[in-house]
Amino acid sequence: MLCLMIISLLGTVHAEAVNPNVVTGDEAKVLEDKIKKSFSLDKMLIVKTDIPDMYEVASDAGIFYVDRTGRYLLSGDLYDLEKNKLYPSGYFIDKTLTIPFDQLPFELAIKRVHGNGEKKVAVFEDPFCVYCHKLDEELKKLDNATIYTFVFPFLTERSLPYAQNIWCSPDPAKAWEDWMLNKKVPETNACGTFPHKDVVALARKMNIRSTPVILFPDNERVTGYIDLEEFKKHWK
After folding, report:
1. b/e code 20-46 from CB counts within 10 Å (16+ = b)
2. Which positions fall inside the Thioredoxin-like fold domain (predicted)?
3. How much is the pTM?
């Protein structure tokens, strides 16, 4: 599922042709040819990493790393011992495909403001995602924050109607918190502004394949639940 979604984005990435981290042209062809000598792969997306002479590759066989010469191939997570930082498999692919924070279509999100709203964060959530419910408990604790929730309903058959009922309610922010924090089932609502298809397209464009996914103004992307202390680290 992960690789198929990435491959479906190859045309979009190359069409935009503005991301300097995507390896294209002769450089990409040299690496692809060397990889194909050992593996029968159809398509590949190659991106630069923060590690000198190391690239991350998404293919129809999975995600892996390859060095500049195309001789050495690694799979799995990488750990920077000097920075004490983990790079999960797919980290650089996700980072490359993520839209810059200030260019996100916030009109597709439910907006909540705490205090002066100075600190900003965007999250992709499903109404029936267990860890999203847990995450919202932490989001509720944020002071002086603006929270943009992109409702990405894909987990269950009930996700889509619940998302619509919440979005189309008189107060979507309250309806979202009522459900996520208090399990208050949203009333049935319908409207012509429910942006379900646009949010799904946005998620696919950024290779978001699970929830929750958290986006910060420094363009850092976190997949999965984090607590309040982790949020604070991203705003230092």
Report:
1. ebbbeeeebeebbeebeeeeeeeebbb
2. 114-233
3. 0.81
> Domains plus CATH for the chain?
25-96 (3.10.450.70), 101-234 (3.40.30.10)
pLDDT > 90: percent of the chain: 66
5 pLDDT higher than 60: no
For 84, other C-beta atoms within 10 Å of its C-beta total: 7
Euclidean distance between CA atoms 80 and 41, whole angstroms: 29
Q: Say how far apart CA 101 and CA 49 lie, in whole Å.
A: 20
Model confidence pLDDT, tens digit, residues 170-200? 999 999 999 999 999 999 988 989 999 999 9
Amino acid at site 33: D
The interaxial angle of helices 196-205 and 159-167, nearest 10 deg, is 120
Read off the pLDDT of residues 63-78 as tens digits, 9 standing for 90 and up. Answer: 999 999 999 999 999 9
- Phi/psi for 100 (5° steps) reads -50, 140
CA count, 13 A, side-chain hemisphere, 227: 1
Q: For residue 62, how far is the Cα from the chain centroid?
A: 18
Predicted confidence at residue 18, as pLDDT, reads 57
Pair of tokens at residue 122: 């965007």
Yes or no: say if 47 and 87 are a contact pair by the CB < 8 Å rule.
no
